[in-house]
Design a protein that fits this description.
This protein is mainly α. The protein starts with a strand and ends with a helix. The longest helix has 18 residues. The protein is globular. The protein is about 50% helix and about 10% strand. A hairpin with a 4-residue loop joins strand 1 and strand 2. The chain has eight helices and four strands, in the order ββαβααβααααα. The strands form two sheets. Strands 1-2 form a two-stranded antiparallel ribbon. The mean pLDDT is about 85.
Length: about 170
């Protein structure tokens, strides 16, 4: 009765977890690695941050995310500011071809996207002679992604109260 995911490329079942359990494990890992220091999540575009926010909100876990993470940065914005000769709107697949030649990643899969983006970041900075301290400083000064939406369960008290005020009849 447990849901399973079959990886068509590797032709095998992947280990799975209940969504809440998976999100809680992810948040625990973020809290552990971020303990006592600033933690920045970098994404390629800002859509993934919004998806993460909405999924965590389904389990009332987004406050843990915002407690653990100092801020979110869009790598496309970072490239536009710090590497003007590289197209900031290039797909991650294209960046991997250029900066991680010979490496294969299964893109559009969260863990592999993260590894691919990490490889692109490290390779790009290494090729340009940007030391890690400078990269960290650059990231810290980047415009932060802000979440422009909130998720409220439709049956919550606040929504019922608001609906009653807007439509008393």
């Amino acid at each position: 009765g447990k849901r399973q995911v079959f990886d068509m490329s590797r032709r095998m079942f992947l280990p799975t977890a209940d969504p809440r359990e998976g999100f809680e494990d992810f948040l625990s890992w973020l809290e552990e690695i971020g303990a006592g220091r600033e933690l920045v999540l970098v994404s390629h575009g800002n859509a993934d941050i919004l998806v993460l926010d909405r999924n965590l909100a389904r389990y009332h876990l987004q406050e843990r995310l915002y407690s653990a993470v100092s801020h979110f940065v869009d790598f496309q914005d970072y490239v536009q500011v710090h590497f003007k000769d590289v197209s900031s709107r290039m797909a991650l697949r294209e960046l991997v071809k250029i900066f991680c030649a010979g490496r294969n990643f299964r893109l559009h899969c969260a863990d592999e996207d993260a590894r691919a983006l990490q490889c692109v970041c490290w390779s790009l900075h290494s090729m340009r002679g940007v030391p890690p301290a400078q990269y960290n400083s650059n990231i810290a000064r980047m415009r932060r992604i802000s979440i422009k939406s909130i998720t409220i369960p439709k049956n919550c008290r606040e929504i019922k109260e608001l609906a009653g005020r807007l439509n008393p009849g």
